[in-house]
Amino acid sequence: MAPWPAAATALAVSGAAATDLSRQLPVSEAAATALAVSGAAATDLSRQLLVSEAAVTALAVFEAAATDLLRQNLRQLPRQDVRMECGRVLPDSLVLEIFLHLPHEAVLRAGLTCRQWLAVSRDEFLWRELFYSYYRIPRSVPRHPAAVSWYREFRRLYDCIPCVEVQTLREHSDQVLHLAFSHRGHRFSSCSKDCTVKLWDTERPDGNISLVHSSSMRQFNWGYTQFSQFNADDTLLLVSGVYLGPHHSSSGEIAVISLENYTLLSRVRNKPYDVFGCWLNETHLISGNLHWIGNMTSCSVLWLNKAFQDVESENVNVVKRLFKIQNINASTIRTVMVAHCRRHDNPDLLLDYEAQSQARRQKGQQQDQHHQPLLFDLGTSGSEEEEEADEEHQQLQKGARCHSLHSQPTLSGLDHVMQKCKNVGARELAIETHVAKVMGRAHSKPPESSLIEPSESSDGEDKTYLLFTTGSLTYSPHQIGIKRIKPDQMTTSGPVLGKERSSEEFFDSLDHVIDIHGHIIGMGLSPDHRYLYVNSRAWPAGCVISDPKCPPPIAEEIDLHVIDLKNLREERRSLRAHRAFTPNDECFFIFLDVSRDFVASGAEDKHGYIWDRHYNICLARLAHDDVVNSVAFSSADQELLLSASDDSTIKVWRSPRMVRLAQAPSRQPRPRNLLSSWLSRGKNSTSGSSVNGKP
């Protein structure tokens, strides 16, 4: 930077004049503090600009005078803040140039000095520069489309992130694996290795969260609960669990609980257990089943179940087969979820990925595994299934109960594959895979053409997709499979058990597949179901898989991919900051969650992380004493976040803004007449300004 002695000298003179003026006028503590801060900042600025020693001395004298002024007036200051009003000593352009070299905290404090400085401290150009320099965002990335000013956008990222720990819930006695909020945000559920599912209330008057109900699933031979989900109208709760059985068991179960009286309505077998299960609509849920038809070839069947199975007539269908999909190379379908993609998008919620990609190209930033992003630390089934269940129950009675329940849930079915392939040669396995592929191509129902080649008529439709993890090269999940669910498939009425297929069509083809090139360990949908976020641990670049039983080594860094479900394309801008350390055969699921503006995830490094969805930056890190398994934003307020950990706790995080509001003393309402109250209400309702979606 070029020398600037004139500016430094002018600043010293203005400092002296302001100091002399402040002795004659009553000033506030904030004003005196601002003088001292600006003096110190100016001294440092003069050193950077290579000004003369005399100018530095003058600035130091000014700083000392301002400090002395503060000490003299501490006891004489009035209670109410009085800003110093005086004639303009410096032009606005010079004050702006000085503010550009100050941190944002100093700029805000300096703005309390006088009206001129206050006006300059709210300058849009100033906050645009402070925004890009502080968060280190490429300048070609535009401001969020919903933002109304750079100042408010800076404040949103700095003050509205749920990074302040306000409460720790310790009611669970073992590792907490999953958290889920109701759609209204008034309740949330938690699942744990202690085999309970607990319900919590978030609407207490004192702001604290309290336990409402706890159900133990031990009586149903569950080992632990692993996942839960509220239906669309928050009247039913889906709870997914793992059977207590031998180590190689991959069976689980789904239970439906009424939230009106906490009674158990139905139970559905679920295999493998890491299908988890999900709601399709208010009254129907999806479960899975797995049938092995070879050493490394299997068939996954996805079932649609009615939640109220115990009260249905025997003449009414309560279960219906949705899809039957062939698996090769020891892979299976896991982690099912439903996305309801609307034909209309809200422009304020769309992420400008094209601008992000352009900025990355301009800056020459190449993504590699050594990249370290900036971190802002702010603080029902067939007879085969029943036989397997009976066998497992007998083994349980013989002593399987001594199996440790404290190990982390890992990939299901892996031991089964290893046992069956133990004495089978590589050539035999390769022949099996080749035959399975030929049979799959010859006896599979073709994919949905409207999904592969969208037409103009289909573009205006609301679409429902079934999303799940799968694979084609090895047992570890490395692909996202997509099947469109048609309107006539939304209910258990109609054709059952695949009667709509021809006799030659044994399987359903996937409508679309997205390869992640890594081990997928988590997925989450944005609130509008437009974007799918995927946690994965990458494989080495250019790796070749020759043995399906030996997948490539996986990276410790966790990549967070973004997939646009409107055009079924992965946006090439993965987020990174969180880490995991377990190998392929011990890798477990880490749940993530997405709010309107943010995305959060757990990690094995004892932290949860929060990113901004638009600017692609990590904003906060949430500390725990062990692995963070799950995070969840409140559906009603994204400034409330929960995190669950292997340390058996649930931590509650709120934003600094919400913490201040909760701690502020309540104000007594002023008595107002009807006319003034109506005028004030009308004025507030017409105002379009808001901070982070809240007035």
UniProtKB/TrEMBL annotation:
<keyword id="KW-0853">WD repeat</keyword>
<feature type="region of interest" description="Disordered">
    <location>
        <begin position="662"/>
        <end position="695"/>
    </location>
</feature>
<dbReference type="Pfam" id="PF00400">
    <property type="entry name" value="WD40"/>
</dbReference>
<feature type="compositionally biased region" description="Low complexity">
    <location>
        <begin position="357"/>
        <end position="367"/>
    </location>
</feature>
<dbReference type="InterPro" id="IPR036047">
    <property type="entry name" value="F-box-like_dom_sf"/>
</dbReference>
<dbReference type="GO" id="GO:0016567">
    <property type="term" value="P:protein ubiquitination"/>
</dbReference>
<dbReference type="InterPro" id="IPR036322">
    <property type="entry name" value="WD40_repeat_dom_sf"/>
</dbReference>
<feature type="domain" description="F-box">
    <location>
        <begin position="90"/>
        <end position="130"/>
    </location>
</feature>
<dbReference type="InterPro" id="IPR001810">
    <property type="entry name" value="F-box_dom"/>
</dbReference>
<protein>
    <submittedName>
        <fullName>F-box/WD repeat-containing protein 5 F-box and WD-40 domain-containing protein 5</fullName>
    </submittedName>
</protein>
<dbReference type="InterPro" id="IPR042508">
    <property type="entry name" value="FBXW5"/>
</dbReference>
<feature type="region of interest" description="Disordered">
    <location>
        <begin position="439"/>
        <end position="460"/>
    </location>
</feature>
<feature type="region of interest" description="Disordered">
    <location>
        <begin position="357"/>
        <end position="404"/>
    </location>
</feature>
<feature type="compositionally biased region" description="Low complexity">
    <location>
        <begin position="447"/>
        <end position="457"/>
    </location>
</feature>
<feature type="repeat" description="WD">
    <location>
        <begin position="621"/>
        <end position="653"/>
    </location>
</feature>
<feature type="repeat" description="WD">
    <location>
        <begin position="169"/>
        <end position="203"/>
    </location>
</feature>
<dbReference type="InterPro" id="IPR001680">
    <property type="entry name" value="WD40_rpt"/>
</dbReference>
<feature type="compositionally biased region" description="Polar residues">
    <location>
        <begin position="674"/>
        <end position="695"/>
    </location>
</feature>
<dbReference type="GO" id="GO:0080008">
    <property type="term" value="C:Cul4-RING E3 ubiquitin ligase complex"/>
</dbReference>
<dbReference type="GO" id="GO:0019005">
    <property type="term" value="C:SCF ubiquitin ligase complex"/>
</dbReference>
<dbReference type="InterPro" id="IPR015943">
    <property type="entry name" value="WD40/YVTN_repeat-like_dom_sf"/>
</dbReference>
<dbReference type="Pfam" id="PF12937">
    <property type="entry name" value="F-box-like"/>
</dbReference>
